[in-house]
Write a structure and sequence with these properties.
single chain; 118 residues; mainly beta; seven-stranded mixed beta sheet; four-stranded antiparallel beta sheet
């Protein structure tokens, strides 16, 4: 089992940057595929980015490609989401997700609000 705590959200102007962090407690962080999801008001939760257990493979939703970067530090049990060139449509609650590689159980953080507005 793993517990996830996100941080780094806030209010930023369009074109600005934020870096989200997700700290995981528990054992065996390296076995988890990690991801960031977001949910805007009135919309379904969508997958934003994922990263493999080693960090060697990443995937992004088309709307954030070239602007967001996911990475992980397995020594610190932490996954990050660097968000650049933010747009108002990036406004959402961002959730950290962990799923054991080859498994189906999902673990979620409590979410962190990101608001992009002038």
């Amino acid at each position: 089992q793993v517990q996830l705590v996100e941080s780094g959200g806030g209010l930023v102007q369009p074109g600005g940057s934020l870096r989200l962090s997700c700290a995981a407690s528990g054992n065996n962080f390296r076995i988890y595929v990690m991801g960031w999801y977001r949910q805007a008001p009135g919309k379904q939760r969508e997958q934003v980015a994922t990263i493999s257990t080693s960090g060697g493979v990443t995937n992004y939703v088309d709307s954030v490609k070239g602007r967001f970067t996911i990475n992980r530090d397995n020594a610190k049990n932490t996954v990050y989401l660097q968000m650049d060139s933010l747009k108002p449509e990036d406004t959402a609650v961002y959730y950290c997700n962990a799923r054991p590689q080859g498994g189906s159980k999902n673990y979620w953080g409590q979410g962190t609000q990101v608001t992009v507005s002038s």
